[in-house]
Amino acid sequence: MSNKWLKDAVFYEIYPQSFYDTNADGIGDFNGIIEKLDYIKSLGCNALWINPCYDSPFRDAGYDVCDYKKVAPRYGTNNDLYRLFDEAHKKGIHVLLDLVPGHTSEEHEWFRKSQSADQPNEFSNRYIWTDGWFAGCNRLPYIAGEAERPATYIINFFKCQPALNYGFLKPEEPWQLPMDHPDAIATREALKDVMRFWLDHGCDGFRVDMASSLVKYDDEKKSGTSAIWRNVREMLDAEYPDAVMVSEWSDPPLALRAGYDMDFYLNHNGGGYASLLRDYDRIIGRNADSDNSYFHRDAKDRDINRFLREYLPWYQDTKDIGYISMLTCNHDTPRPRFTLTPEELKLAYAFIFTMPGVPFLYYGDEIGMRYLNLPTKEGGYFRTGSRSPMQWDNTRNLGFSQGCADTLYLPVDPADDAPTVAAQEADPHSLLNTVRAILRLRHAEPDLQADGAFEPLCNRKGDPFVYRRGSMILAVNPSGDTLSVQVPVAGMKPVFTLGEARVEGSVLHMAGQSFIALK
Ligand code: NOJ
Ligand code: CA
Questions:
Q1: CA dist., res. 43 & res. 364, Å (int)
Q2: In 313-377, which ranges are E strands?
Q3: What is the pTM for the complete model shown?
Q4: Is 209 in the pocket of ligand 1 (CB under 6 A)?
Q5: Do residue 298 and residue 436 come from a single domain?
Q6: CATH number of the domain that residue 474 is part of
């Protein structure tokens, strides 16, 4: 179990393009993040995850890295980022960068050399090449006709993202290197070199993109990819014992055993997490009407067991080895405000931020920013609607940038009632101030932090969901109906409530849309 600074960590995810622009070019920058550190701290967040900010042609918003050791000029300089680490540390805020280990941009120097006609060279096997100029592989996506060398190459995501070569668990063709081939090991060592570079400059660890994607033809248990991460973990333990890693994997039993401190619980394939906030099929047409999420007041057939059935076995299996990270949203997911009202969001956040593990708040979700209907930008497709500029106040461009509106990275929410930080600061019951109050509660009560034990006490359909965290009991009633439930709460006192909820003997009375924490 991690003994690090994670026990009371609450993360804030920043999509740097859209957070705060200090030089009026319409794009958020490092100086903008530095200026807003006090705001982030005021929320109760004490750690950051910044989406990829490295040099890139931005065909996938920076997940197509062309230089792992140099930041994209649009955000500032490497020195600005080092200063951001320093300033954040002075305020007690840790900073994770986004590590993209599975692929680079096709414009990365390694790929330029790897694809050249001048073969072999140091980077020939840095990527996965077949042995034919036209033929591919029927199990992995490949690109033909782009390279100088007469071979096709495997991609990891978009066409612009050739897969780095960590080898195959069980090679089937001569061009498939085994994991212990020196060139596959060289890729892993190059990854460590990148990690050391940023850790030496003050970063505190990494969010790891597509963490399960490294070794090809891996087995169900991801034993090949896991072996690589365990090797990386050994390096961290020896050289950077305070560094942490959170995986985009969404399989905590595998990810946490592979050496990760935390694994995101994502909405992959529907799943338990999706049933809480995003229970709609697809966002084609961006029609939110069909939503049946647990936190939707009028959900039909509301059932917390859809979440618990997946979550509880994972939690039981991993509670002693690492953390499951619950999140409000991320840059790949429709914002929860897409279907939920600010009142519904208060309850959803109260739940997310009182669960075990290490929670993540996506920038703007604290004020209930909307999911916007925007055309695709930098490979965002439907994700673009969750990447619009942060809404600070009612001045030009909602305070995001002094630039002209048409130079902005993405347009700001055009609605007359677009939520802003400034407006919500003034309202004690705003979503913003509710998030602050919930996070104050979490920081004040060790039982509510990462390690406090979790146990459902009442998960019957139609009742409020009641759960224990350490010696505390919490309950949420997302429905519009007043509900009462008998639970072992006799003698306990409320330390926090949303809406009307109270204890009478061993009965909890909860008005529609309420939450309570008892001690
Ligand atoms: C997951 C990232 O979160 C997403 O934004 C990106 O497009 C893919 N990985 C590819 O790197
Ligand atoms: Ca800027």
A1: 11
A2: 323-325, 360-362
A3: 0.97
A4: yes
A5: yes
A6: 2.60.40.1180
